Amino acid sequence: MTQNVTAAPAAPDSASARQWWRDAVIYQVYPRSFADGDGDGMGDLPGITARLPHLRDLGVDAVWLSPFYASPQADAGYDVADYRAVDPMFGTLSDADTLIREAHALGLRVIFDIVPNHCSDRHEWFRQALREGPGSAARDRFHFRPGRGAAGELPPNDWESVFGGPAWSRVPDGAWYLHLFAPEQPDFNWDHPAVHEEFRSVLRFWLDLGVDGFRIDVAHGLVKASGLPDIGHAEQVKLLGKQAVPYFDQDGVHAIYRDWRRILEEYGAERIAVAEAWTPTVERSARYLRPDELHQAFNFEYLTTGWDAAALRAVIDRSLTAMNAVDAPATWVLSNHDVVRHCTRLADGDAARGLRRARAATLLMLALPGSAYLYQGEELGLPEVTELPDEVRQDPAFFRSTGQDGTRDGCRVPMPWSGRRRPFGFGPVAGGPSWLPQPDSWEHLTVAAQTGDPASTLEFYRRALAVRRAHPALGAGRDIAWLPSPEGVLAFRRTAPGGAFVCTVNLTAAPLAVPTPGTPLLASAETEPGAWVEPSAETEPGAERTVLPADSTVWWAA
How many whole angstroms separate alpha carbon 504 and alpha carbon 525? Predict the structure, then answer.
């Protein structure tokens, strides 16, 4: 049942029209894995609220919550049964209201996920469509089609689910329905006006509660090509795929987001929407951010670029050029709830190398113009959990023989907060449950264990975010000036009226001497004795050199 609550608490700086999203650091919370307030082993809204001071102390600007709506949890809440209700496993609508109020009191904005491409097969609309049968008006709100073959026994077209297997399932009366993800997630038909009106209402419901914005799940998928044409081959789009297909990135989605932008602006200039859009190019992503559409889009091209100087430079240039063309901020992200954590992804099989590169990659990301996204636990240097027993896995892709390998569970293991025993403060009782098991080795990675340790990854993140906030040349911006550098090194300058800044990244496996552009502000790795090369009487003025360790980044006040 839809829950109700009244009042809309004010967001930070609500009296101004500051475009806060242009330089924001936004922290993603995966609700079931962040903090468990009642000890049942599942994260919840009261648990998140209690841990909000950690995010304030970390130095982020906003928190984005993955779905917590009423759901059978076939895909961890991305199968929504009621868009206006909180699932009891996460709490109540009153808990959501409290979370927003407490976040605002701490100076944090709040972004909620919204899932408009599909719902749960237990959503009342879909249940009605099944009850009322073929030809009913209720079925027009989804993509029901007759099958092919002599008896309709074959799917209506050759589209594949992102999770593997056909994108169609058959119901007992013989009709087939479209689901680009799990069978429990039927796709809405956005050609139907009732779908548009329903989501206008959902947006206003949460905006009235005081939410500061929305992250739009599968923002590229709402509109399908007319006639649902065959693709003609198998091995279609998987998670974060960039192929051009008739069910993703169709031009019709842009009218939807122009409509949504008007709704957001009814609530003032500071409410935003962020697109999760898998597009063939960053230029196609920029189309979602034209001045009358959305405010940000995730930069998946940056996320999927490897530890390679030339490739990173190219994607940074393309991203800035594309976003500047539509006057939108670039975004930068290294991890989220759908990908292997970058601490492991960049490791090439060596955990120490992975952490070293992850810290260097973080400083590079935070130095770039625009907005940055952090995924819960990366500030602790958490690695991917790669040895989960099959019996505890819950990623729906794991259970489809032709699908993904189910690795999304590995980045969703609950946060370690404190203590020497599992669940490491995730829940209120030592030795209590957690919905996915944490490794014993995480005893040394908890928030409590790292707080106050100047060498820890947590304190490194805190320092980096403090410098980013304080330095006038960091945060929002449109461009960077690349500096001459050796092969395998990236160096760029940013300038502002209050000062200049240089970022230097050594992406090679060996220490390298590079020009010293100023006073070091922060480094991702400890330098070895003698690594800072001091000028001598013989040194040409302005030609001082500094030796950067392998896989490291240094920030400079220039």
Answer: 13
**Of residues 217, 249, 270, 276, which has the active-site annotation?**
217
Mean pLDDT for 436-446 is: 97
Tokens matching residue 357: 């590169």
H or E element, residue 296: strand 296-297
By C-alpha distance, which of 74, 43, 29 is closest to 434?
Answer: 43
d(CA 524, CA 363): 7
Q: How far apart are CA 218 and CA 229, in angstroms?
A: 20
Per-residue exposure over 527-558, b if at least 16 CB sit within 10 Å of its own CB, e if not: beeebeeeeeeeeeeeeeebbbbbbbbbbbeb
The pLDDT of 234-240, averaged and rounded, is: 84
DSSP characters for 252-293? THHHHHHHHHHHHHHT-TT-EEEE----SSHHHHHGGGSTTS
* Distance (Å) of CA 62 to CA 59, 86, 230, 332, 476: 9, 21, 42, 15, 15
Asked about 384 being catalytic, the answer comes back as: no
The reply to whether 266 belongs to the active site is: yes
Sign of CA dihedral 136, 114, 380, 546: positive
What span, in angstroms and rounded, lies between the C-alpha atoms of 190 and 293? 17
User: In Å, how far are 276, 293, 340, 407, 410 from 337, measured between CA atoms?
Assistant: 12, 25, 8, 10, 9
Cα–Cα dist 289/21, whole Å: 13
Structure token digits, residue 544: 């001082």
How many whole angstroms separate alpha carbon 544 and alpha carbon 535?
Answer: 5
Q: In whole angstroms, what is the distance from residue 334 CA to residue 360 CA?
A: 12
C-alpha 400/C-alpha 254 separation (Å) is: 33
Q: Of the residues 153, 197, 230, 266, which is catalytic?
A: 266
Give per-residue pLDDT as tens, 175-188: 999 999 999 999 99
Q: In the structure encoding, which two tokens stand for residue 143, read together?
A: 């993509």
The Cα-based distances of 464 to 15, 52, 365, 535 in angstroms read 28, 19, 11, 27
State the pairing for strand pair 512-515/371-375: unpaired
pLDDT in tens, 483-496: 999 999 999 999 99
In single-letter form, the type of residue at position 295 comes to: H
SS3 state of residue 390: helix
| pLDDT of 271 strictly over 90 | yes
3-state secondary structure 363-386: HHHHHCCCEEEEECCHHHCCCCCC
What CA–CA distance (Å, rounded) separates 343 from 108? 26
